[in-house]
Specification:
This protein has helices at 29-39, 58-68, 84-87, 90-94, 129-144, 165-168, 171-184, 199-208, 227-235, and strands at residues 17-22, 42-49, 74-79, 98-101, 105-107, 115-117, 150-151, 187-191, 212-215. By secondary structure, the protein is of the alpha/beta class. It has a single domain (8-242), classed as Alpha-Beta Barrel (TIM Barrel). Strands 1-2-3-4-7-8-9 form a seven-stranded parallel sheet. Strands 5-6 form a two-stranded antiparallel ribbon. A hairpin with a 7-residue loop joins β5 (105-107) and β6. α7 (171-184) crosses α8. The protein is globular, with a radius of gyration of 18 Å. The two termini are 30 Å apart. The structure holds zinc ion. Zinc ion is lined by residues 20, 22, 78, 217.
């Protein structure tokens, strides 16, 4: 197990960045900076933005940006609504270093329905997995067309159909998602706490020229086991050129 409590000199610094550190559950910018020192990964902190989430207004977005400004971390948001880029101030959005999105909130049972959290299976059912997957692909491609920087948890499947990963995520579908990410210059996340995406997807994405980011996706301020991200660097021979880091240089 590799955690962010290990000392910096216990292993060489890693290329890339952990760009999925939520300021929630006791996690603060200061604690995130300490994590940066421990893991050797550059870091980005974020809050969720959307209706019913911590950032719902431009004032809240400005306050978040001001609170992070001056710290040696990247500042981002995780967007949960599909109209975020027209709802929030362009000037404020322009101050963000990155925007992260996942595909885990989707209209169910059809496109005209209210979006639901797919990780809460009691809220919906998927009677026809293949038909749902076609809609889910459209959902994925729509999100990849938004002005985002990172697709978090790529190829996520909800619990009801997770066992059908091999069948639902055909190579053709994976290739379509990866190509859309390439076309929009969106990085693909390898998350510390998720089984997604599969090794097969990562290999395919790397061969197509995609770039990757890391994500701890914390719910608290306890140490996170970063083994999956660390081993990915070795397993997939990831070099700095394969890893996404926001453009703005951090303060020294
Ligand atoms: Zn998150």
């Amino acid at each position: 197990m590799v955690t962010d409590q290990e000392t910096p000199d216990s292993r060489p610094p890693l290329p890339g960045a952990d760009l999925h550190i939520h300021l929630r559950g006791g996690m603060t910018v200061e604690k995130a900076v300490a994590r940066q020192c421990a893991t050797g990964l550059q870091i980005g902190v974020l809050k969720n933005l959307g209706r019913g989430w911590p950032i719902e207004t431009d004032d809240q977005l400005a306050a978040f940006l001001d609170s992070v400004s001056g710290h040696p971390v990247f500042a981002g948001v995780q967007v949960n609504d599909r109209d975020w880029f027209i709802k929030r101030s362009a000037e404020l959005l322009g101050r963000l270093d990155f925007v992260l999105a996942d595909t885990m909130i989707m209209a169910m049972p059809d496109n005209d329905s209210t979006p639901v959290k797919l990780w809460m299976p009691e809220l919906y059912s998927i009677p026809d997995p293949e038909a749902w997957m076609e809609r889910y692909m459209t959902h994925n491609l729509r999100i990849l067309a938004e002005p985002i920087s990172i697709l978090a948890n790529p190829t996520y499947l909800p619990p009801a159909v997770a066992e059908h990963y091999e069948t639902l995520w055909t190579d053709a579908r994976m290739e379509q998602v990866i190509q859309a990410a390439l076309d929009s210059q969106v990085a693909l996340e390898i998350q510390a706490r998720s089984q997604y995406p599969s090794d097969h997807f990562i290999r395919m994405a790397k061969s197509m020229g995609a770039v990757f980011s890391f994500g701890s996706n914390n719910f608290h301020d306890n140490p996170i086991d970063m083994s999956r991200c660390v081993s990915a660097v070795e397993t997939f021979s990831l070099t700095p050129g394969d890893l996404y880091v926001p453009a703005r240089p951090l303060l020294t």
